[in-house]
Structures are given as C-alpha cells and as structure tokens.
C-alpha cells in the first residue's frame, strides 16, 4: 500500500514538470527563448497544474469513499446531488449577472453545494441508512438539474445562456491563483474528513448491521460523508464546473493494487486522481481543435462513458 | 459475565421476553418463521432497540454502554454473509479488530489466534471469492473471534452450508463455549441440530418465550406439534437425535 503511494508520488513528480512545459506554446527548458516564458509558467501553467492536482485528488478520494459507503463499485460522487447543487448555484450567478465579479461564481456554487448538503442531511439524517441517503441524493440531483434547465431556458440574454452552457462543461482554462486559494483549502479539508471516515467505511464492508455491531455510529459516518463529499466535490465544481467520471474510474484502477479495504483506497485514489486530471488537462491543451481547447469535462466523459460500459459488461459476465 | 434481557417488548415482534444467559453455554433460539428469533438476538446484541424492557451485560444496561465497549464484549454475526469487497481471509478477520485500538501487535496476535482456532491458516492470503461456502463461513466467524468478544451471537450461521460443514461449525461453536468460556447464542431452524448441540434451548412463538431449558426437556414432540404445527417424532439416542416430521404418532393432526 505505502509502496503504491510511493510509485504514484514518483509518477506525479515526473508528470508535474512535464505538464508545465506542454501547451499551446511549448516551452523548451534548455533553451528558454520565449520572452514571456516566466509569466506563462507562473501565472498560467503553474496555477492550472496545481488546480488539476487538487481537484483530481479531491475527486479521487471522494470516489473511493463513496464506493466504500455505498458498497458499490459503480458509485460516483456525483450521485448525491452535491455537484448538481453546486452547478445550480453557479448557473444562478450567471443568470443574475453576478458572475462578472470574480468571487461571486465560486461563492454561489459553494452555497449551492452547501444547500444540497443541508437538504441531504435533513432528509436522510435521522435513520443513518444508506438506501434512504442514496434516494434522497438522487432526488436532489434531479431537482437541481431541473432548476438548472429552467434557469438556462429563462436566461436573460443569449450571451448568458452560452456562457452557462460552456461553463457547465467543466474546464481549467484561464484559472488562476485566486481559484487555487478557493479550491485547495476546501478540498484538502474534505479529504481529511473522508480519511476520518476510513475505519467506519471498512466496517461497512460487512453490511450495515455488522458495522453497527462493530461499534460504528451510522449517523456520524453519514455526517462525515456529507461534509467530505460536499467539500471536495463542491469546491471542484465551484472553480472548474462539472468534471465527471474521475471519481468513478480512479478507485477502480487503484483497488486491485491495495488490500481492497475502503480506508486503504482513499489516499492512493487521491494521488491517482491528481495524476489523471493533470494528464487529461495537458492532453486537452495539446489536442488541436479549431474552436479553441477541448473542454476537460467533455474529454473525461468521452473517456469515462466507454469505461463505465466496459465495467457493466464485466460485472454482467461475473453475475452470469 | 451474564447477558440478560428483561421484559423485552417490540411492537409485533417480541412480547415481554425475559431471559438471562450464561457464559460457557451454547444457547439456541428456536421458533417458527416470524416468531421473533432475529429480533431477540438483535436486541440482545444491542442492535435492535426494544420499545420496552432492557438488555444488560453483567448488570450494566446495554443502551448506556459506549458503542465500542459493547462491540468489544459482544460479537455479532448477521444472517446475510455479505462482504462488499473481495478482501483476503486475513484482511476480513482483521476487520473484527475495529472496536479495539490496542496497537498493531495485539491486533496481529488476535487475528492469528482466530485464524488458527478455525484452521484458516493455510487460506489466510486467499481472497474470499476463491473460498468454498464452508471456508467462507469459517472466515466470517474468524472475523468475529478476532474481536475477542465475551459473547458470540449468530443469526442462522448454518444457512447455505452442507451437512458436514454444519456439523463442523456447530462443533467449533460448542468448543468455543465449553473450552474458552464464551457465551454462544445461535438462531437455528434445524431442531435436530439444536437438540444435539445446544446446552439450552429457548423457544419463541409469536413473540413470546414459550419454553426455556435443556433441549431434551424443551423440544418435546408435544411442543413441536403445538408451536410448529407439525406432528413429529424423535429417533435415536440422546446426543444423536434425528427428527422425523409428518408422522402422526398420537392421533393429533397439525
């Protein structure tokens, strides 16, 4: 397990410097002729790389915890309605025009994520049961989705509508240090909360009743999950829009390399998520596309959907 | 350390059940479907809160105990043998250490002892998906034993096991009670197994405790006829009994 973490850290140590060189403008480290190379490094590439690492780590850890909580390898942190809640908040900031002033968009998104978390806690909080929790999350997700579509359809100007739609696709283009300062503390706090849930998630491997017989408090676990998923996913959506499938795919790649306990999956999934998002974002920058960059959210969904189908087919074979 | 329930009442499940269980004994809870067997076991494990009445462990009420202290004392094996992830036997057994924060050395020793006691040593690094049903049942029991509980409560542990593995598991459970002083409480459907292995039998019918005592005294043909509605006859000797159901011996129908 710790060896796996060491390998992932090594891979990150190689990938991060390379990612700083790659992009629309390639930088040759041995021949820095480019006049504004320092500015590109410090103000464009470095914050973007840090953001990819932070968001990827958050999504990976959230996915690992989520699959452990639902005892289901097909679970994704987006299921609980926190990501759609955050997206709804962001859409409202465009809709009202507040988005123009830098800080409003992430604040609205975080408020949306917080609202979804509060609703989730209020509906499912009493029983601590996983089934009710999941159903409540899916209900919140579809409600937020409907309200989002309503906001888009009623958007005041076509310009606002196109802005909203583009933003929803998820990307790290033109993100700066301000976004890092919003996302990094919240995401790291979220990962810390999820790590605290590790023991309880391990117990849940044996089912809810056995977990309670091992002294696990299901309500405490549920609070930790809401807070941890809310912080990681909410912060991610607030600065980068919706980026799907990382939380689904990463724990899958990592699980066979661990002892398969949910608690030993969280840290390697965070590292692998950081690596995946960093590499995917670099590819988005490199791929030549007429209308600008390939959007990160689209790229990952293009990768992720076939992967999900492959998983389903494999599961079907195992069940047959 | 005694485990006792007083006036346990749960709407539609249990009706004023009072019972005191002794360690070093294997107690079997019997009864028809829906008689409240699992509810009684769950209440004794502190997992089902009764509407009225209370469960106490050595005079301390269970509901006042910290969840971890309760989990250290009472090991519970649920009926569903689900394990969500394909962990190895050793990792599964180590999950039983979750109520303890006793350090890696003590944890490893307890896991080792549990694996040895159930002859799982050769399978310790085998993933669960590669085990047979009997091996899997033993691995799940090892998880409970690794927690070093004073009480072992198991809900239908024989489900999905063939006859040889049923007998082996019952023998192991009885040995745990007799040799190690564990209190063992099982819910069983098979009355012959209860007759041959139990030290004490509790019979539930529609939520009420209708009989309590040694198996020979409790599981009479009359009681089986009255509670299960099945005329039946015992064959064989004490300790090696077989139940022949459906043969009317005294002219009573179901």
Automatic annotation (TrEMBL), chain A:
KW Membrane (keyword) present? yes
What subcellular locations does the record give? Answer: Cell membrane
Q: Which GO terms describe its biological process?
A: siderophore-iron import into cell
The portions of this protein that span the membrane are 46-66, 78-97, 103-123, 130-156, 176-195, 224-253, 265-284, 296-313
Q: How does it sit in the membrane?
A: Multi-pass membrane protein
Could you state one GO cellular component term attached to this entry?
plasma membrane
Q: Does the keyword Nucleotide-binding apply?
A: no
For this protein, the record's InterPro entries field holds:
ABC_BtuC-like, ABC_transptr_permease_BtuC
Segment forming the signal sequence: none
At the top level of its lineage, which domain of life is listed? Bacteria
Keywords assigned by UniProt, alphabetized: Cell membrane, Membrane, Transmembrane, Transmembrane helix, Transport
Query: Could you give a GO molecular-function term held by this entry?
Result: transmembrane transporter activity
- Homology family: Belongs to the binding-protein-dependent transport system permease family. FecCD subfamily.
Fetch the PANTHER family from UniProt. Answer: ABC TRANSPORTER PERMEASE PROTEIN MJ0876-RELATED, FERRIC ENTEROBACTIN TRANSPORT SYSTEM PERMEASE PROTEIN
Put simply, this protein is called: Iron complex transport system permease protein
UniProtKB/TrEMBL annotation, chain B:
ABC transporter domain residues are 3-231
Q: Which domain of life is it from?
A: Bacteria
Show the GO MF annotations: ATP binding; ATP hydrolysis activity
Matching entries from InterPro entries are given as: AAA+_ATPase (IPR003593), ABC_transporter-like_ATP-bd (IPR003439), ABC_transporter-like_CS (IPR017871), P-loop_NTPase (IPR027417)
The protein's UniProt keywords, in alphabetical order, are:
ATP-binding, Nucleotide-binding, Translocase, Transport
PANTHER family of this UniProt entry?
HEMIN IMPORT ATP-BINDING PROTEIN HMUV
- Physiological role: Part of the ABC transporter complex HmuTUV involved in hemin import. Responsible for energy coupling to the transport system.
Q: What is this protein called?
A: Hemin import ATP-binding protein HmuV
Q: Which organism is it from?
A: Novosphingobium arvoryzae
């Amino acid at each position: 397990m710790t060896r796996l973490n060491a390998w992932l850290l090594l891979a990150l140590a190689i990938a991060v410097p390379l990612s700083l060189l790659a992009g629309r403008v390639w930088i040759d480290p041995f021949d820095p002729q480019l006049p504004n190379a320092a500015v590109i490094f410090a103000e464009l590439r470095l914050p973007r790389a840090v953001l990819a690492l932070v968001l990827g780590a958050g999504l990976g850890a959230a996915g690992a915890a989520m699959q452990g909580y639902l005892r289901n390898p097909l679970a994704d942190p987006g299921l609980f309605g926190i990501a759609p809640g955050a997206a709804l908040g962001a859409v409202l900031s465009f809709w009202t025009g507040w988005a123009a002033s830098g800080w409003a968009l992430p604040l609205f998104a975080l408020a949306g994520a917080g609202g979804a978390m509060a609703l989730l806690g209020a509906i499912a909080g009493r029983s601590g049961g996983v089934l009710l929790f999941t159903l409540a999350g899916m209900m919140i997700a579809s409600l937020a989705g409907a309200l989002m579509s309503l906001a888009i359809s009623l958007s005041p100007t076509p310009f606002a509508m196109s802005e909203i739609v583009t933003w929803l696709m998820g990307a790290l283009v033109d993100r700066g240090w301000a976004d890092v300062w919003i996302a990094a503390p919240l995401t790291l706090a979220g990962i810390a909360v999820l790590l605290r849930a590790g023991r309880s998630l391990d117990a849940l491997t044996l089912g809810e009743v056995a977990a309670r017989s091992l002294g696990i408090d299901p309500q405490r676990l549920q609070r930790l999950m809401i807070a941890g998923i809310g912080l990681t996913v909410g912060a991610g959506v607030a600065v980068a829009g919706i980026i799907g499938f990382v939380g689904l795919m990463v724990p899958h790649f990592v699980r066979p390399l661990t002892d398969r306990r949910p608690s030993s999956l969280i840290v390697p999934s965070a590292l692998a998520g950081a690596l995946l998002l960093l590499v995917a974002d670099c590819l988005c920058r490199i791929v030549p596309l007429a209308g600008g960059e390939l959007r990160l959210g689209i790229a990952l969904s293009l990768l992720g959907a076939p992967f999900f189908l492959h998983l389903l087919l494999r599961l079907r074979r195992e069940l047959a | 350390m005694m485990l006792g329930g007083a006036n346990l009442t749960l709407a539609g499940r249990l009706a004023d059940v009072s019972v005191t269980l002794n360690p070093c004994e294997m107690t079997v809870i019997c009864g028809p479907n829906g008689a409240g067997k699992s509810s009684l076991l769950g209440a004794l494990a502190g997992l089902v809160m009764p509407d009225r009445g209370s469960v106490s462990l050595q005079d301390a009420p269970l509901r006042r105990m910290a969840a971890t202290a309760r989990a250290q004392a009472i090991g519970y094996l649920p009926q569903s043998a689900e394990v969500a992830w394909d962990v190895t036997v050793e990792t599964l057994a180590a999950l039983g250490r979750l109520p303890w924060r006793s350090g890696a050395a003590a944890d490893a020793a307890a896991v080792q002892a549990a694996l040895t006691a159930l002859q799982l040593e050769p399978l310790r690094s085998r993933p669960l998906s590669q085990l047979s049903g009997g091996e899997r049942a033993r691995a799940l029991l090892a998880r409970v034993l690794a927690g070093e509980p004073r009480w072992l409560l198991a809900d239908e542990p024989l489900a999905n096991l063939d006859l040889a593995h049923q007998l082996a598991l019952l023998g192991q459970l009885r040995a745990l009670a007799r040799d190690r002083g564990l209190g063992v409480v099982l819910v069983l459907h098979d009355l012959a197994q209860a007759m041959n292995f139990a030290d004490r039998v509790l019979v539930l019918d529609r939520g009420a405790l209708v009989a309590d005592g040694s198996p020979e005294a409790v599981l009479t043909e009359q009681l089986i006829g009255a509670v299960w509605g099945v005329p039946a006859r015992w064959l064989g000797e004490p300790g090696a009994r077989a139940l022949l159901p459906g043969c009317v011996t005294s002219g009573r129908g179901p």
